[in-house]
């Protein structure tokens, strides 16, 4: 575990564990940083859109951002605590992450929107911003995403080449 660090980072949401303890504990996301493989994952958790995404992006070099795209309707009520698909794309850009994996949609009916609507809005906004499709990874329930860090691959290949010289 020495090479893996977990950093608790801010999010914009509310907390409640019991009936009378509203906002008495912290709410946040996680940066999981593997120094050996030089891979960094950001798990947003629940959050509304806020300036903290830019600050997190300035502090960490994020390879993969797991961003929520569901539970945003009705927006007048949910906006403070849950990003819309469009806000999730903006947060991904603020984070300056390489890959985007949408989450927090599709498994349960959490709000007024449909799972299809969340993905459609995400893809439409991705297309509108002309972002590279190879960096968006929409997974079906239970699917595994295998990431290979190109920087790490290059270093491994250089080591192999050095051994064969």
Automatic annotation (TrEMBL):
<dbReference type="InterPro" id="IPR001279">
    <property type="entry name" value="Metallo-B-lactamas"/>
</dbReference>
<dbReference type="GO" id="GO:0005737">
    <property type="term" value="C:cytoplasm"/>
</dbReference>
<dbReference type="InterPro" id="IPR036866">
    <property type="entry name" value="RibonucZ/Hydroxyglut_hydro"/>
</dbReference>
<feature type="domain" description="Metallo-beta-lactamase">
    <location>
        <begin position="4"/>
        <end position="105"/>
    </location>
</feature>
<dbReference type="Pfam" id="PF12706">
    <property type="entry name" value="Lactamase_B_2"/>
</dbReference>
<protein>
    <submittedName>
        <fullName>MBL fold metallo-hydrolase</fullName>
    </submittedName>
</protein>
């Amino acid at each position: 575990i020495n090479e893996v660090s977990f950093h608790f980072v801010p999010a914009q949401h509310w907390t409640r564990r019991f009936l009378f303890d509203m906002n008495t504990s912290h709410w946040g996301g996680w940066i999981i940083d593997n120094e050996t493989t030089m891979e960094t994952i950001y798990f947003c958790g629940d959050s509304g859109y806020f300036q903290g995404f830019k600050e997190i992006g300035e502090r960490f070099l994020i390879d993969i951002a797991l961003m929520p795209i569901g539970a945003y309707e009705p927006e007048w009520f949910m906006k403070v605590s849950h990003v819309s698909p469009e806000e999730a794309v903006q947060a991904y850009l603020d984070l300056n992450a390489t890959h985007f994996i949408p989450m927090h949609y599709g498994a349960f009916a959490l709000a007024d929107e449909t799972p299809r609507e969340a993905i459609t809005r995400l893809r439409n906004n991705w297309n509108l911003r002309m972002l590279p499709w190879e960096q968006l990874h929409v997974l079906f329930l239970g699917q595994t995403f295998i990431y290979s860090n190109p920087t790490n691959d290059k270093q491994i290949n250089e080591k192999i080449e050095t051994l064969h010289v």
